[in-house]
C-alpha cells in the first residue's frame, strides 16, 4: 500500500473534522426523529467523509454526466450521507429535524425522487452493487472518466445477487467500480458469523477477479490510500474491506453498545455530543 504524501496532513485533519461534525449532525437527526439506524450509520461515517470531502468528484452543483456516482447500497445508513451533505452546506441545516417525517427530503432510505442529492434510491439490500455495475458500465461506454463508488454492508453480501454482480464485474474488468464493504461484523438479527459467515472473504473476492484491500475503516489515511490504490488498478474492479464498529464515535467509545438500531435517550445523546465536541 502506498503511503500518504507529506502534504496530506492538513487534508487528513480536515477529514477528521468533517467526520466529527457529521457524527454530531447524524446523532441529532436520529435523536429528533426518535428513529433510525444509528449503529449502522456511524460505522460508515469515516468512509463517507473521505469519499465526500477528499476523493470523489461529486458535488450537488456538478451535472451527473460529469461526476462520479455514489451508491449507498446499505440504504438504512443514509443519515451518514445526509449528515455529510449538511456539513458540506449542500443541504440546509434546518433539515436536521426532518429525518423520516412525511414529505421530508430526508427519508429513512435514500430516495432520489425526494432528494436530488441522492444518486440512486436504495433500501432492498443486495441490489446496490448491481446498480453500481450498470452505472459504471454506462460511464465507460460513454467515454466518461468517472468512478462509481458503492458502500455495502457485510451482512448484505450474503445476498446471491451480490455475487452475480461480482462475477460479471470481474470477468468484464469493470475497473471504474470501487466497492466498500462496511465490515462491522453485525446485521439486524445478530452477528454475521453466527447467521451466515463470510470467511474467507478476501479469497472469495480474489477468486472473482477483484482487486482486494483490507483496511481499518475508521483510519482516514488508510481509507484514502486504498482509494488511490484502487484508482491505479486499471484492469480490475476494486473492493475495499473496511473493518469498522457499529456505533463508532471514537477509539474508546460506541453508542448503544454497537447495536444495529435503537433510539438514544436524552442522556445518551447529550453524552455522545459532549464526547464528540471534546474530541474536536
Task: Kindly describe this structure.
The chain has 280 residues and is an alpha/beta fold. The chain has a single domain (6-279), classed as Rossmann fold (3-Layer(aba) Sandwich). The protein contains ten helices and nine strands. The strands form three sheets. The chain has a five-stranded parallel β-sheet with strand order 1-2-3-7-6, sandwiched between helices. Mean pLDDT is 94; it is low at 1-7.
User: In percent, how helical is the residue content?
Assistant: 40-55%
CATH H-level homologous superfamily name: Thiamin diphosphate (ThDP)-binding fold, Pyr/PP domains
The chain-level structural class is: alpha/beta
Low-confidence stretches: 1-7
Number of domains: 1
Using brief descriptors, characterize the structure shown:
9 strands, alpha/beta, five-stranded parallel β-sheet, disordered N terminus, 280 residues, Rossmann fold, two-stranded antiparallel ribbon
Summarize the structure.
With about 280 residues, the chain is of the alpha/beta class. The chain is about 40% helix and about 15% strand. Residues about 1-5 have low confidence and may be disordered.
Amino acid at each position: 500500500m502506498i503511503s500518504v504524501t507529506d502534504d496530506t496532513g492538513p487534508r487528513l485533519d480536515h477529514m477528521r473534522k468533517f467526520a466529527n461534525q457529521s457524527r454530531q449532525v447524524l446523532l441529532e437527526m436520529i435523536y429528533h426523529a426518535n428513529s433510525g439506524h444509528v449503529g449502522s450509520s456511524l460505522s460508515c461515517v469515516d468512509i463517507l467523509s473521505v469519499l465526500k470531502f477528499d476523493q470523489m468528484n461529486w458535488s450537488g452543483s456538478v451535472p451527473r454526466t460529469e461526476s462520479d456516482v455514489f451508491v449507498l447500497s446499505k440504504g438504512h445508513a443514509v443519515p451518514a450521507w445526509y449528515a455529510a451533505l449538511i456539513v458540506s452546506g449542500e443541504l440546509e441545516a434546518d433539515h436536521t429535524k426532518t429525518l423520516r417525517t412525511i414529505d421530508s427530503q430526508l427519508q429513512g432510505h435514500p430516495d432520489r425522487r425526494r432528494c436530488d442529492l441522492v444518486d440512486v434510491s436504495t433500501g432492498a439490500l443486495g441490489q446496490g452493487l448491481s446498480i453500481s455495475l450498470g452505472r459504471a458500465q454506462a460511464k465507460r461506454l460513454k467515454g466518461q472518466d468517472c468512478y462509481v463508488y458503492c458502500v455495502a454492508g457485510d451482512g448484505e453480501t450474503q445476498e446471491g445477487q451480490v455475487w452475480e454482480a461480482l462475477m460479471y464485474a470481474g470477468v468484464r474488468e469493470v475497473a471504474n467500480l470501487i466497492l466498500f464493504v462496511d465490515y462491522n461484523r453485525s446485521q439486524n438479527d445478530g452477528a454475521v458469523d453466527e447467521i451466515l459467515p463470510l470467511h474467507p472473504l478476501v479469497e472469495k473476492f480474489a477468486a472473482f477477479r477483484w482487486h482486494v484491500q483490507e483496511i481499518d475503516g475508521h483510519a482516514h489515511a488508510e481509507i484514502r490510500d486504498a482509494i488511490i490504490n484502487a484508482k491505479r488498478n486499471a484492469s480490475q474492479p476494486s473492493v475495499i474491506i473496511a473493518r469498522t464498529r457499529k456505533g463508532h464515535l471514537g477509539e474508546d467509545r460506541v453508542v448503544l453498545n454497537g447495536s444495529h438500531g435503537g433510539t438514544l435517550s436524552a442522556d445518551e445523546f447529550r453524552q455522545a455530543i459532549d464526547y464528540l465536541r471534546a474530541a474536536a
